[in-house]
Amino acid sequence: MARIAGNAAITWTDDSSGLRVLQLDAPLRALRLGHSLATYTRESLDRSKVEYFTVSSGAYEMVGVVRYSRAGATLVDMLKAGSQGRTLTYYPNLTDSDTKAAVQLLGPVGDAGLELDADLGVRGEHQVEIRFRTTGGAMFTQPFWKDTNTLFSYRAGDSLKAATFTRVTSTGASASYPTIGAGGGYGTLTTAKSNQARLAWFSTVSSAGPRDTPALLLEGSRKNLIKYSEDFKAANWASIYTPVRTSEQTDPKGGTAAWLIGDDSTSVSTREGIKSTGFTPSSASLAVSIFMKADTSTSSQVYLARSSDSALSGEVQTDWSSGVPVNVTYANASSVAPPERWRNGWYRFQFYTTSLSNASTYELRFRPAEEPNSTGSVYFYGAQVEE
């Protein structure tokens, strides 16, 4: 019977061999959270009261089972390293390297004996229950333990040949999706490899997250009409008056491709910003999205405008309060989505418009400080106008 190698792993550093990797055929099974706190109690003589005495605030733990392991010797080495106090790193999925935890092994320590899997022992597969604690004692975050309502299971990184899935990823045709590795589960923008399906994470609670539900993205092809959608000083982006543009800002991918765009003019008639070169849609319907992050501005605007007369064809405008978008309004949009939270204070704004003409040319425009007489700056990233 054929087997599929898993992507979960536990790594550590050995004095003689360097980095060691125990690759698991499945993430830790039967996971459960725990908390260890040194607690002492004292009862009153009449048993009517109980007093509690605790030492510090304790530490959170996670207990799980390594199952289906055929690498018995490496598994023993991992338990040995953990028993010696070495830091272990647990990865539920190596293809999402942001989701990891530096841990200490609390058990079993000293005794590295393994059990044969109760169900599959005749195949020589091992299992052992292990008890982890994060090196800082904090709670393990959602990606490590929370069950999901997945309808079916897909191991990220495998090929969906049975579904004849095909996509070519390149600099000019990247396929992005949210993972929940870094940033507290609010979404890290990731680019899928060629012919790799996207297992994206979404929030079922609100657009503000955190993300708790995976979904397999199977979509038709889309065309982004904005060239150089991450480089806001390229030739296809022009200034509206004289905005201040600062590159190499932290972006939702964890890189430095975002831009800080500022309006330093207090004149009502010179609200500063940037705009794309004109494009002509092939239909009346376009989907617009942009990442924004608060800085000093109290209100910002992104809108589609007809090049010939600046007529508004779609708009999202937001006020900012303590880094959070508030009073978000839309114009000329047939459908909208609430601001979607991502890592490091980023929000993605989206709307869908059906009011365009394929006989006209349009521009995508940003105004970091929308209110008259006001100044301020906002971070921008990843402009998309898709048809």
Could you describe the 3D structure shown?
This protein has helices spanning 72-83, 142-145, and strands at 8-14, 18-24, 29-43, 50-69, 88-91, 101-107, 115-116, 126-134, 176-179, 188-191, 198-202, 213-217, 237-240, 244-249, 258-263, 273-276, 286-294, 299-306, 312-321, 324-331, 335-341, 347-353, 362-367, 376-386. It has 387 residues and is mainly beta. It folds into three domains: 8-145, Elongation Factor Tu (Ef-tu), domain 3 (Beta Barrel), CATH 2.40.30; 161-217, no CATH class; 237-386, Galactose-binding domain-like (Jelly Rolls, Sandwich), CATH 2.60.120. Strands 1, 2, 3, 4, 5, 6, 7 and 8 form an eight-stranded antiparallel β-sheet that branches. Strands 13-16-23-18-19-20 form a six-stranded antiparallel β-sheet, with no helix packed on it. The chain has a six-stranded antiparallel β-sheet with strand order 14-15-24-17-22-21, with no helix packed on it. It is elongated and about 80 Å long. The two termini are 45 Å apart. The relative contact order is 0.12. The model is unreliable at 1-5 and 146-152 (pLDDT under 50).
